[in-house]
Amino acid sequence: MTKIRISSLNKQMKKKSLLHDINYEFSGGKIYGLYGRNGSGKTMLLRAIAGLIMPSSGEISIDEKILHKDISFPSNISVIIENTSLLHQYDAYTNLKILSKIRKIATDGDITLAIKKVGLDPDSKMKVGKFSLGMKQRLSVAQAIFEKPDILLLDEPTNAIDEEGVLQVYQILKEEKERGALIILTSHHKQDLEALADEYIKMDNGGIVLDSK
Ligand SMILES: Nc1ncnc2c1ncn2[C@@H]1O[C@H](COP(=O)(O)OP(=O)(O)OP(=O)(O)O)[C@@H](O)[C@H]1O
């Protein structure tokens, strides 16, 4: 099972401390709920784990490999942070098909199944540019899971999705966890995470302030 270990992680930008002395261990087969108010550092922590920002001090290791030292990026990771990379000129199926050609992990069946799971139609020719915000977010979830990643980092993955869709996404994430994926998702509200999270992590001022395992 995948393991992520964060040790004494600090990130400063323009003399401001954005992440402060973070120590935590994450394991596969679990869902971690990261919550806290606006600007508390949730997205920044996900960015650091995804290898998108360089720590000022401390380190992050993934399966004993240190980020930016042993590896540049975690392998087999899916990340949904803010604007995801959907291609607006193509339909849902084509979006995933193009990505599948890069890593050659997923089959056409995996693509169709992932699109169906999020409640979209894999046969629809509607361009993603015409999708509502919620439909785009649903497709982002399909994009995140269709290659069966070991690590899923999701920044507020359901904030634009309707009630029925949110339940579908919860179900998908439970299945991903059962498969052994390590899932970290953020929300402003702890209650949003109660249906899903095995562990809650509260952030404030760039640090972890409460750890209720
Ligand atoms: N590129 C940057 N340079 C400097 N400071 C930044 C940069 N990006 C974000 N910040 C600051 O880092 C802090 C943490 O931001 P972050 O986006 O991680 O918060 P968050 O907990 O995800 O908030 P929200 O709930 O609003 O999404 C904020 O104070 C923000 O202003």
From TrEMBL:
<protein>
    <submittedName>
        <fullName>ATP-binding cassette protein</fullName>
    </submittedName>
</protein>
<dbReference type="GO" id="GO:0016887">
    <property type="term" value="F:ATP hydrolysis activity"/>
</dbReference>
<dbReference type="InterPro" id="IPR003439">
    <property type="entry name" value="ABC_transporter-like_ATP-bd"/>
</dbReference>
<dbReference type="InterPro" id="IPR017871">
    <property type="entry name" value="ABC_transporter-like_CS"/>
</dbReference>
<dbReference type="GO" id="GO:0005524">
    <property type="term" value="F:ATP binding"/>
</dbReference>
<dbReference type="InterPro" id="IPR003593">
    <property type="entry name" value="AAA+_ATPase"/>
</dbReference>
<keyword id="KW-0547">Nucleotide-binding</keyword>
<dbReference type="InterPro" id="IPR027417">
    <property type="entry name" value="P-loop_NTPase"/>
</dbReference>
<dbReference type="Pfam" id="PF00005">
    <property type="entry name" value="ABC_tran"/>
</dbReference>
<feature type="domain" description="ABC transporter">
    <location>
        <begin position="4"/>
        <end position="213"/>
    </location>
</feature>
<keyword id="KW-0067">ATP-binding</keyword>
